[in-house]
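Human: You know discrete backbone vocabularies at least as well as I do. Show me how you would write down a chain together with its backbone fold. No explanation is needed for now; the record alone will do.

Assistant:
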Amino acid sequence: MRRYAFLLALPLLALPSVAHAAPVWNGDMETADLSQWGYLLNPEINGMTYASASDELAIEGTYAARIELHNDAVWPNGLKRVELQHGPEAARTAEGATTWFAWSFYVPEVLSVDPSQTIGYWESGGSYQQMMAFQVAGESISFATRRPNNVVQWEADGMVTAGEWHRIAMRILWSKDGGTGEVDVWFDGEQVVAAAAAQTLADDNPHFTQVGLLRGQVEFDDVPVIFIDDAVEGDSIEDVHPGLEPMGGTSTGGGDETGPGSEGGEDVGESGNPGEDDGPATTIGTTDPDATASDTASDTATATATATDAGTGETSGGSAGGDDEGKGCGCGAQGRSNTVGLLMLVALAWRRRRS
């Protein structure tokens, strides 16, 4: 009888496992530092900290990155920037690959209109060409792809409100062919760009992303701050959860508790002319220490005239298919149902044997 019951239970071993969203990479600062990121650009100047993990507020967990931009945060090419860099594995931004990427941000005060600032972009490694970027001026935000021509794919006023978390999610289909590459974008859970055609790969080099504050070769007196949190790279929309609610947790700290997390620092955008980066970033982790961060992100007005040279953004993923977070395949419920049915058969066989 035991052997009979065992044979009946064998199908249980073949049941499908429950599927769970599992990001490929997580930049949530829950290490209490910025070590999850590959490079830091201008994290400290003259003994002053411009980028750090802070427990002041967060969209998920305890920590977020706090970034503040000062006029003396000058890159060797003259741009003003404080940023975090993440580079996916090379194969994940190769021709035909798809990358999903998302991050949350929070600005304590409305960002400057003039100069504006770039808060996130994708760029090619080695050649440092910006392929797509998010620009913020006051409460307005725009998203542009750079090749084969500079195209503003989306722009909206009144979206980047101070004192609230916001979330940007992307799906990127990588291709050097402008008719094959695609980009989807979600903002606060709403899809705002759907399958926009663009050349998403500049060349065969791996691509990377940078988030934070970037301004051009301009002088300014303000000190913008932005918080970055809950940054994720994944293989599906579930992995990056484009909605405001963090995956597997609740938000803490100031602002909208259901909004996307983001690490502190002041929002900055680039308003200068795009150009090739000429200085290395701070090395963190295992990223090639000889790599350099690109400095060619430009604001919308400048980018139109310089689209073929604009550059410095890392590939980030978003994906078409909706803005629902945590959508599952139902494998868990199906597996439980099959398990219960088989156990009932075992029990019935045992009962008949005893009678």
Q: What stands out?
A: The first strand starts at residue 25 and ends at 27. The chain has four helices and 19 strands.
